[in-house]
Design a protein that fits this description.
The chain has 13 helices and no strands. It is globular and about 50 Å long. With 283 residues, the chain is mainly alpha-helical.
């Protein structure tokens, strides 16, 4: 893997996440969106915990609090985005969700040029607000907005937990907390679906690897060999990759307005990253 250019690893991680989401959506009729996210989180959390085997015996109360809050944010982000996937195209849902980290970046700046990126992102939001997805199912849009808020909280807490807990033990425990968050909502459809079609365990095992295990490994490797600024710009391609995955796997075509909105949000995110102060602390 060391011979593969770091930017390609970062792109592969994003492609893996969105393909995993698209594959999961193909099974919504059998387990529903909540059953799907529950299966993904349960399998992903148990696999990660078995591999990492977090050492928590000597954790402080602050470390436990950080890991739990991170898990709540991670669980909410996953549950809400899967609820959004159920009623609006994946490309639209991820574009809205991406406003979370974008807003977080803009909050930490005070320069006039960042107002331009904020205006561009706002234009994207307005276009999505008058597009077919918003008109057709406002609930899906609201769920994506809540996922965006959870993603912003996840970024803040991930940094704090990473600084307070060595290695990835904190992430492993947080994944278990996220699993617990999803269980009350999705355990019944998940169990009923697996009983009716045991092959779903294999399907969502693949989804868990594509959406959690593999992307984390690829991103961790990429970040060791590339500047965080470059990584941030590549991350801005997330909505476009999600739209492409939705089109290829689910045949979800976006309207012209939605494509323009996606381009606005992507450009705003890339612009904020490229023009950020080099000395600024990462979020």
């Amino acid at each position: 893997m060391n011979r593969v250019p770091a930017p390609l690893l970062a792109l592969a991680a994003m492609v893996s996440v969105q393909i995993g989401a698209a594959v999961a959506k193909t099974r919504f009729e059998e387990v529903g969106s909540l059953g799907a996210v529950t299966l993904r989180l349960v399998i992903g959390a148990l696999v990660l915990a078995s591999v990492v085997r977090p050492r928590v015996r000597h954790w402080t109360r602050a470390q436990w609090r950080g890991a739990v809050v991170l898990g709540l944010a991670l669980g909410g982000m996953n549950v809400f985005i899967y609820l959004a996937f159920a009623t609006i195209p994946i490309g639209v849902a991820v574009t809205i969700e991406f406003l979370g980290p974008l807003a977080l970046s803009l909050v930490h700046t005070r320069r006039w040029r960042d107002a331009v990126w904020a205006a561009l992102a706002l234009a994207g939001v307005v276009l999505l607000g008058v597009g077919p997805a918003a008109v057709g199912d406002a609930g899906g849009v609201v769920a994506a907005v809540l996922a965006a808020a959870c993603w912003a909280a996840y970024i803040v807490m991930n940094r704090r937990v990473g600084a307070a807990i060595p290695g990835i033990d904190g992430l492993s425990v947080s994944m278990l907390v996220a699993m617990v968050v999803a269980l009350p909502f999705g355990i019944r459809p998940a169990v009923e679906g697996v009983v009716a079609a045991p092959v779903l365990l294999v399907v969502f095992g693949v989804v868990a690897v594509l959406s959690s295990v593999l992307p984390y490994a690829l991103e961790m490797t990429a970040l060791r060999r590339m500047p965080t600024r470059v990584f941030g710009v590549l991350q801005s391609l997330g909505p476009a990759i999600a739209a492409l995955a939705g089109l290829v796997v689910l045949h979800e075509a976006l309207s012209p307005l939605e494509v323009v909105a996606l381009a606005c949000v992507t450009a705003a995110s890339a612009g904020v990253t490229l023009t950020a102060r080099r000395g600024a602390a990462p979020l």
